Automatic annotation (TrEMBL):
<dbReference type="GO" id="GO:0004177">
    <property type="term" value="F:aminopeptidase activity"/>
</dbReference>
<dbReference type="Pfam" id="PF03576">
    <property type="entry name" value="Peptidase_S58"/>
</dbReference>
<dbReference type="InterPro" id="IPR005321">
    <property type="entry name" value="Peptidase_S58_DmpA"/>
</dbReference>
<comment type="similarity">
    <text>Belongs to the peptidase S58 family.</text>
</comment>
<dbReference type="InterPro" id="IPR016117">
    <property type="entry name" value="ArgJ-like_dom_sf"/>
</dbReference>
<protein>
    <submittedName>
        <fullName>P1 family peptidase</fullName>
    </submittedName>
</protein>
Length: 352
């Protein structure tokens, strides 16, 4: 399936990374398990922020909640300490508990000191509801083994997008949503940095859809002979990774700019929507064990140097959402329901 750039849709002015994906940030890996058979349209997406032990070598991180109609876990400790100490798991709403248990098991196997010689671990699981249209979410089809499989499959480099992993059963703007990614290259004070976004898109009303600044939702709605869209009750998860040295406070500022990228595609963060961004930096690692001198020296970009990163967040988030829809194949699910792909309307997507 085509990406936005395959169709000549270039978002913003900053150049993309070589892969135009979150894995352009060195060390970041993505693994996925897709469950797609009839009424079962769901899955798991795992993101490993670096290749070492995240528990022993934590990363600065922050969360921004735009609308809190969601059931993700792990945010309280991130808000308090400003660090990330586990991989990130994306799945459907009712599988959060299963995913958390599997992630804890993964962390215990890697770190025998957890819960014994030191404290416990903060697993982070993020979700969207794929049961609103395509998936039999009540069937609880995601099992612990699927989470373990996604974690084991996580590797750097290119990965599938669209109706895969956690995005298998998701809908966006009344069309097929799912997993999407994009990246940007930034230069700050003579230094080159990368920023990547990965989204799990499951939000929006068709009549509101904008593609590269063009209001196409009403045109697609007419083509599909649909009446007005129902109230927005979906969700979107945005994961941001960068190799720029940033504090957790600065990462919270970055995460806030993801909202602008979401809004550019037409979402108004409806009352029943769970819209969340999580940002982390791979530039510096924070040891779990207290150093002898009890002093950490961490670098950070000056506040006045953040603007290129803000632009990168907005551009990559917007493009990642479009990629999640364009690279998703039309999908049939439970009760004979289906979602068309945005790529099914190529004549409307060509800029005039």
């Amino acid at each position: 399936m085509p990406s936005a750039r395959d169709l000549g849709l270039e978002i913003g002015s900053l150049p993309p990374g070589p892969l135009n994906a979150i894995t352009d940030v060195e060390g970041v890996a993505v693994g996925q398990v897709t469950l797609s058979a009839g009424a079962v349209q769901t899955g798991v997406t795992a993101i490993l922020p670096h290749g070492g032990s995240l528990f022993r070598e934590k990363l600065p991180a922050a969360v921004r909640v735009f609308n809190g109609f969601g059931k993700s876990i792990g945010f309280v400790q991130i808000e308090e300490l400003g660090t990330l100490e586990s991989p990130l798991i994306l799945t459907n709403t009712l599988s959060v508990g299963t995913a958390a248990e599997a992630l804890v098991g993964y962390m215990l196997a890697q770190n025998p000191e957890i819960g014994a010689a030191t404290g416990t671990v903060n697993p982070v699981v993020l979700e969207c509801n794929d049961g609103a249209w395509l998936n039999d979410i009540r069937g609880l089809h995601v099992k612990s083994g699927h989470v373990a499989e996604a974690l084991a499959a996580a590797v750097p480099g290119s990965f599938a997008q669209g109706a895969v992993g956690a995005g298998t059963g998701m809908s966006a703007y009344g069309l097929k949503g799912g997993i999407g990614s994009a990246s940007r290259l930034i230069r700050i004070s003579g230094q080159d940095y990368r920023l990547g976004a990965l989204v799990l898109s499951n939000m929006g009303r068709l009549q509101d859809l904008c593609v590269a600044g063009r209001a196409l939702g009403s045109l697609i709605s007419e083509r599909m002979k649909q009446e007005a869209s129902p109230p927005e009750q979906g969700s979107i998860i945005v994961i941001l990774a960068t190799d720029a040295p940033l504090s957790d406070r600065q990462l919270r500022r970055l995460a806030g700019r993801a909202g602008a990228g979401i809004a550019r595609t037409g979402s108004h963060f409806g009352s029943g929507s769970g819209d969340i961004a999580l940002a982390f930096s791979t530039a510096q690692r924070i040891p779990h064990s207290q150093p002898k001198e009890s002093l950490l020296q961490l670098s950070q970009v000056h506040e006045d140097g953040l603007d290129p990163l803000f632009c990168a967040v907005i551009e990559s988030t917007e493009e990642a959402i479009l990629n999640s829809m364009l690279q998703a194949t039309a999908t049939a699910g439970r009760e004979g329901r289906s979602r068309a792909s945005l790529a099914d309307f190529p004549d409307l997507l060509v800029a005039r």
